[in-house]
Amino acid sequence: MAKILVFCETQNDQLKKGSVELLCAATKSQGEITALFLGPQGKAAAPLAGQFGATSSLVCDDEKLSSYNPELFCAAASQAIRDSGAEIVLASTSMLARDLFPRVAAKLDCGLASDCTQLEISGNAVKARRPLYSGKCSAEVEFINSPVKFVLMRPNQLPVSDPQSGKSAEVKLFSLPPADTKTTVENVVQGAVGKIDLTEADVIVSGGRGMKGPEHFKMLEDLAATIGGTVGASRAVADAGWVPHSMQVGQTGKTVAPSLYIAAGISGAIQHLAGMSGSKVIVAINKDPEAPIFQRSTYGVVGDLFEVVPKLTEEFKNILK
Amino acid sequence: MRIFVCIKQVPDTETKIKLKADGSGIDEAGIKWVMNPYDEFAVEEAIRLKEARGGTPIVTAVTVGPKSRCSDALRTALAMGADDGIVVDAPYETDTFTVGRLLAAAIKAEGTADLVLTGKVAIDDNASSVGQFTAEFLGIPHTSVVSKLEVKEGHVIAEREVEGGTREVVRLNGPCLIAANKGLNTPRYASLPGIMKAKKKPIKELSAQTLGVEVSGKVKHTNFQLPLEKPPVKMIGGDPSAQAKELANLLMNEAKVL
After folding, report:
1. Res B182: pLDDT
2. In terms of domains, do B177 and B244 share one?
3. What is the pLDDT of residue A86?
4. Do B150 and B257 fall into the same domain?
5. Distance between CA atoms of A247 and A198, rounded to whole angstroms?
6. B157 touches chain A (CB under 8 A)
7. Cβ-Cβ contacts under 8 Å, A95 against chain B
8. From the CA of A313, how many Å to the nearest CA of chain B?
9. Is residue A48 within 8 Å of residue A9, measured between CB atoms?
10. In this structure, is residue B221 part of a structural domain?
11. Which residue in chain B is spatially nearest to A147 when comparing CA positions?
12. Is residue B38 included in any domain, yes or no?
């Protein structure tokens, strides 16, 4: 039975979906599961990890971890990995984890597989697969001589099971090990509060040049709000300053893999496809029937997005109410 | 002041990827190689820092990979304005852990780095790991996804993007590693005189052996596969109302994603 440590991230005192996916995958392998929460913001959700199979939750609720400091987070995570005797460490490929865990792996003299899309654990063996060259191929990751195997999974790739209500993980607090830090977070400028990051979103509604101007993105926000999605954009639109760069999907933006990706007025340049072709279901709405996006889509609508998108929102409002 | 820029040579985005018959890797024949786009932001930032300081900082571009082709990426950095280059000869497949080890060893062999710059991710393996590995092996702090950088006396102030469009302003004291995001600057094209000058700039060749680094690695990519063929797109006809109705129906009842 492998000892598995699952790094859990939270939002509004709830486990993020990516973290639940990892707990479920670990449970399936019948490993001994410990959840790890770093920072006071994770404390409330720590017992909830038990509903998805964790026996205990290690929590470092030091105030110094309330914002992300790589050196302090690295010190705390390394400590937890050593204390738990973890042989496998799982985390989501979130902005935070993808920054943190390579540093932790380096410190512990271990290897790491980032941005994986498939994962199977049996005993101590880890079988993970990751896309390469923007999804033009994929490869299996084999760990060699790595006492702890670090696997970062892309969110929305693994099945989740229903929570076992009534079950709760035993919360064990640990203190932040002394660490000499040269880093200080001086200021945090909040984006849209409570917004799920594109890389973790399960539904994305993206707009391109066909949106004709920033004022029309409201239409996509309405659709996204109706179906529980996050709004993204193409490079042309971000470069034109219609939306911030943080919303850009594609090669010089974010790599996303939601269950549903709706591309409105996006022609589908290879750089855009590189960032979203891993999506399960792709919908293209475009007035140009020759747009390359259609070749990568599951469903295609040739039409005027200014007519189709509001009608689609209305349709969902009726169905989902 | 000594600035190191870590760069990687990667296949151009437009390049078609073919696999070796035994699935052990990609077939490199016919690939057009370029400097990783995010590393261009790092090179540009280093050169701007040099220019803003009357040209005194020395900018060294470092890369790990097969020296026969990776030197081209170094020449590009030199043509943009870097002073010299180091190539650590190693197979393209070298894992991110080992690349970090080699970069750190190559930098240490040169003396002390005041600042190390690199791209936040390489577009070939999408790992976003090498910078952090390198920083830990150098024993210096790092920050990634940086879109604004101010280099002061003894410290830097970096603005970085985190989740949901939130931005953090981070201060790092002493030597540090910065991984660049898009938006940090607009990389210049190498000028013709720049390209001519680059030909005469020195490129040092090193190897894992000369650096005393073990290269067996921690992870290995095996069993390469091409993606499954996607079924053809289902086009939805009719007027906008009919299209919206049918699309909503398919997403709910056929694809079951909502």
Report:
1. 93
2. no
3. 97
4. no
5. 7
6. yes
7. 145, 161-163
8. 8
9. no
10. no
11. B218
12. yes
Amino acid B1: pLDDT: 95
Q: Is the CB of residue B171 less than 8 Å away from at least one CB of chain A?
A: yes
- pLDDT value, residue B233: 97
**Closest to A26 (Cα-Cα) out of A60, A50, A62, A59:** A50
The set of residues, in sequence order, having a beta carbon less than 8 Å from that of B216 and lying 6+ positions away, is A144, A145
Give the tens place of pLDDT for each residue, A136-183. 999 999 999 999 999 999 999 999 999 999 999 999 999 999 988 999
Asked whether the beta carbons of residue B219 and residue A143 sit closer than 8 angstroms, the reply is: yes
Range(s) of the domain holding residue B92: 2-211
State residue A193's pLDDT score: 60
Q: Residue A211 CB: number of other CB atoms within 10 A? A: 25
* The one-letter amino acid at B51: E
Q: Are residues B168 and B258 in the same domain?
A: no
List chain B residues with pLDDT less than 70. Answer: none
| The dihedral sign for the CA sequence A178, A180, A186, A188 | negative
Which two structure tokens, joined as six digits, stand for B253?
A: 């009842």
pLDDT > 90 in chain A, percent:
93
Identify residue A1 by its one-letter amino acid code: M
Same domain as B110, residue B65: yes
At A194 the pLDDT is 62
Rounded (10°) angle between helices A95-107 and A70-84: 60
Residue B220 lies in a domain: no
Residues 45-64 of B with CB under 8 A from A: none
Helix (H) or strand (E) holding B19: strand B18-19
| pLDDT tens, position by position, A221-273 | 999 999 999 999 999 999 999 999 999 999 889 999 999 999 999 999 999 99
In terms of Cα–Cα distance, which of A92, A128, A123 is closest to A3? A123
Architecture of domain A3-173 in this structure: 3-Layer(aba) Sandwich (3.40)
User: Between A and B, how many residue pairs show a Cβ–Cβ distance under 8 A?
Assistant: 271
Mean pLDDT for the stretch of residues A79-106 = 97
Question: Does residue B254 share a domain with residue B203?
Answer: no
Question: Structurally, how many domains does chain B consist of?
Answer: 2
The reply to whether CATH 3.40.50.1220 applies to domain A198-320 is: yes
C-alpha angle A174-A98-A38 in degrees, rounded to nearest 5: 15
Residue B51 lies in a domain: yes
Cα R_g (chain A), whole angstroms: 21
- What value of ipTM does the predicted structure carry? 0.95
CB contact under 8 A, A94 and B163: yes
Beta strand pairing call for A183-189 and A88-92? unpaired
Give A276's pLDDT tier (boundaries 50, 70, 90). Answer: very high
What does the pLDDT read at residue A191? Answer: 78
Report A:49-88 residues touching B (Cβ under 8 A): 67-68, 70-71, 74
Q: What is the mean pLDDT of residues A61-74?
A: 96
For residue A214, pLDDT over 70 is answered with yes
